[in-house]
């Protein structure tokens, strides 16, 4: 089996089925199918989900929708074959998942919803609170790969020290570790800049995926001190925006000079840093905007200017509590 090669940008589907943060309801499903079709037609063939995505009774909804959309697309598509679409899911190390068999069972349930799994990922490390739980679950991931049930395996929210240990364990069984996924954006540079994750990934041959590359929408330019989203995202927005004004002004200026949007510049910055951003999209307009980040590249001076402004942000995004070192 060969290691998966991922496209420059993917699509995150956290919002598909999430009512708490993203106000999902099933009336959106037709539009989400259109988002999926547009992405694939334009070469965005990596779709990232998780078996924990979907709130309350909608648990697993994101995977179910993604499976339905893939099937419908492939029934009528001419441009792209089914095998070119990469369905990636993250399997959560819930407290009741304690054995390699439980990880295999979780993957089988996800595959039932998705139709198949191309990239299976450990959603987070348990090293910070139940280190004994982690290795059996990772062994289960490797079992899935060896059995040919997935095309690749990866991890999420791992720091460099833990990543090296996991990579070594995988290498002992001759299994490539395809990817590492971390929270990364102009408002969340910690895992890559301060922990040095990109250098470690390059050394180990691991592809680095950036989730929340638009920082819950704060980097799109549509929010201000006077205009914030509702719910929990509004709370985060009001905490961060005042101290990020200089960065957002810089982002807007570069976007204007490039005839791009702030979101497109923010996504292009992620790619310029050697990562694969996976922005979410709930509407065709959002998907089209994300696609505008492809086909061009920021100049080194622009990247450096954004880096300087990002370093000045007084209160960056809160880190994922499961991020290990």
Automatic annotation (TrEMBL):
Top-level division of the source organism's lineage: Bacteria
Record's keyword terms, sorted: Oxidoreductase
Domain NADP-dependent oxidoreductase: from-to ranges: 8-307
UniProt entry tagged with the keyword Kinase: no
Protein name (database record): Aldo/keto reductase
Species per Swiss-Prot/TrEMBL record: Phormidium yuhuli AB48
